[in-house]
Amino acid sequence: MAGDVRQWADDHRLAVTATAALVALNLAAWLVAAMAGFAFPLRLSTSMAAFNAGKLICSLFLARGVIQLMVDAVLWLVMLSIAEPWLGRVRTVVTALACAAGGVLAGLTLCAAAGWMFQDSLFVSRMRFALSPLVLPVGALMAASAFCSHLWRRRIRLVGYVAILVTLLYSGNPSGYCILAAALIGHAAGRVMAGPPAHVEAEWHWLRSTSFEARRIFAAIAVVLALGPVIAITSHNHAGPLSTIGLLMSPVSVDNGMLAKCLAGDTHGGCFLQFNLLRASMPGAVLRSLLPTAVTLVLAWGLYRGRRFAAICTVAINLFTVAIAVAYYLVVPLSFVPDGMASLLQHGAIVACVANVLPPLLFAVALLAAMKHFPIRIGWRRLVGGIGAIVLAWLACAAIYLIYGIAQPATFSPRATASSLLAELPGRFLPIGFLSHMKLSFVPRTPMASIMYQGVGLVFWIVVLAVAIHWMGDVSESNERARARAERLVETGGESMSFMTTWEGNSYWLSPTGRSAVAYRVLNGIALTCTGPFGDPAEWMDDLNGFAQHCAERSLSPVFYGVHREQRDALLEAGWNSIEVGSEMVVDPRGWKTTGKKWQDVRTAINKAKRDGVTDVQSTFLEASLDVREQIEDISEEWAQLKALPEMKFTLGGVEELRDPRVRLLYAVDADGRVLGVTSWLPTWREGRIVGWTLDFMRHRTDSPNGIMEFLIARMAERLRDEGEADPAHAVEFMSLSAAPLAGMNPDRDNAGEDGAPASEGTQVLQHALQIVADWMEPAYGFHSLFNFKRKFQPTEAPVYVCYPDPAALPQIGLAVVRAYVPSVTPAEVAGMLSTLRS
């Protein structure tokens, strides 16, 4: 570990040195200031009217306090460590300084122009401000993003610009304009230095992404938006509906004399300021205002984990924020301004409203459009239980507050009444930022009254936070116990594709004995299974009938998808119909050889890899180094963004499925440590022992040398052969190359009975529908080419089937298969495909 840290520090010497110099410079300045008797924090602010260039330059390097220094130091280290490897040390320094200089000039000019445009030039010219040390490295970071892989380029730019804009909107400090300008200049400079991206389509189609990466991005943006109120706390300029919380840092204290007059009924213009100052001075009120931020951070965690309810709640919260901003800047002012909208436009309220509305509104709209990436639903029992807990907590807290106030009215000043207690009730639960224009009816006079006054809202939000954490927990499916049981059953027995039943999105039917199960998804009234039964093989045939009966009791039409011949024949005997939907390619690694003319391509790939210094590494995803994991994610994103259709699901795994510690990875790296291609292998158990491995994830870089996938598959076969020779008792029996979905279909072999009779008209319709789906997906995914590629390894072909009992459900079956593989497919696309059935 220590050696890795030393190696990283040596590779990022500029970042480490610059960050250490920043910290040392600030500590030295504070020490000198303390010895000389200067005020702390150092007064480095200036204004445009009384401009002081020396103070402005110093504020680029000196932080106002310990917390700001810690944050700035961490961000300096992160930004410079990203920029340094891509730009080099000299170019990083030059770019940072040039972008900072240009950013300061452009940012201050922009700030002054905004003041002139909104007829507020006098205020802007006299406003005191200081710059931030973050102005320096942000330009280098954005310039380096042009050289990064598209995965990191998207992360840096999306999260970076959202963070800058949120900081600017919540603080309103001219330093925010300078950071934004420096970032934009760095962005443009990076594009000039790096040239256009290699894949223009990937540059512009950022929404075409894997669910894994989309969740990361939305979660990161949600975190940035959630931290807006915290930014307001540390800001000296305040904007937005939560700006009142910034009074925590205000040097102005409550004027008790004026407060008493206001409580007595005085309508002095400064009363609302006194009310806000009093609220901000109460610890319980402050915590009550920050706990909603904690709840939104938990929802961001839920977004990262693909929770649908987290996405819905996040959309609702952002739309609520939009409504509050509209009310704050438009609805409320219109009730008392003399000139209506003209007055609001003159004083900049319209622009302020737009600026505060756009970020949460755009985020809510984008999240709604990307809801397909958040398929995991909370079970109804858990959802109703959580809502009940929140409602009961609110009722209990409200009752305790009202009962105490009625029983002890003299502990408040002025004396509390039933009507005043009810008037104050919303204020006990709302964050103080939403109470800016609400009058205080009374204040607590005793410690117990203060506990009641501040504590009921705090307890309520703690309950909400606990419920949110419970909702976003690891287990979120309605059939929680069945899922946990299925995870164990797959390790007792299964077929080559049974491990896919452990993936997210499946529901589970358990046999009466609990020793076997069937995984399925309900789509358009179809219970579409993910392969056949798994668990105890002695129960599999009974499970076919048991699952069908389970579906009939729930008015679902059962469809077994991806079953092998033995189970298909049993279903045919029961009167079902079947269609071959692909051929699974199976290799026996115990007899693996690459001799003969048919193996020429595979031998060439192995020899070429050896000459080029390419090696294969076997591990799990979590055992791989952070750098390797990031490269695998980058390869996956590159693959997804170059496809015309979104990433497929169902029987095709993505990065999320790699994280299971039971899944093997085999990846190829060159002499420089660059990952060229990666494969994943799913285990198959029999009686608790692994008897085979099935190929799932198979992706490589667009610029990887030819033959890299042939090399990896051949090396996996060699590894399994060698492991079997070293330990014959645990030798695996097969290595499955899996089946390319909807490829290798053979209509001539499909029949409705064992007598070989021709397929029925309904079966022919479904064959045609599935062939249309295969042809539609072929340009994007290349299933037929993948099918032909796997034939290079001289496998044994084992057909897999879809079996169904009701030919009347054929249209729903076709649609269910499409939605299982491509959940985000639109109705228009489906209608276009199915319309060819009439041709």
From TrEMBL:
Cellular localisation: Cell membrane
GO MF annotation: an example: aminoacyltransferase activity
Keyword Cell membrane included in the entry's annotation: yes
Organism of derivation: Bifidobacterium longum subsp. longum
Protein name: DUF2156 domain-containing protein
Domain Phosphatidylglycerol lysyltransferase C-terminal: 490-804
Keywords (A to Z) from UniProt: Cell membrane, Membrane, Transmembrane, Transmembrane helix
Membrane-protein topology: Multi-pass membrane protein
